[in-house]
Amino acid sequence: MDQVKIWDVQSGPYTDYYPDGEEYYYNLCKVEVNGRILSREYYFDSFDDAYEMVKYFHKNIEPIELEIDREI
Length: 72
Known about the structure:
By secondary structure, this protein is α+β, with helices and mostly antiparallel strands. About 20% of the residues lie in helices and about 55% in strands. The protein has one helix spanning about 45-60; strands at about 1-15, 25-35, 35-45, 65-70. A 4-stranded antiparallel beta sheet has the order 3-2-1-4.
């Protein structure tokens, strides 16, 4: 498992569409993975869920910490 820290939302939320016309939502985030800082998209089921992350970083400086299982 990898430790991931989301430090900020750089931009978003965005709405985009799958080829079948279904919507999906994402934020472009500044993340730390194993000590390395990267920009990554994080996807959500709804626009409101994506916007909740934006609102979190408007009020907080602490990262959101996640553990990601990379097993295939």
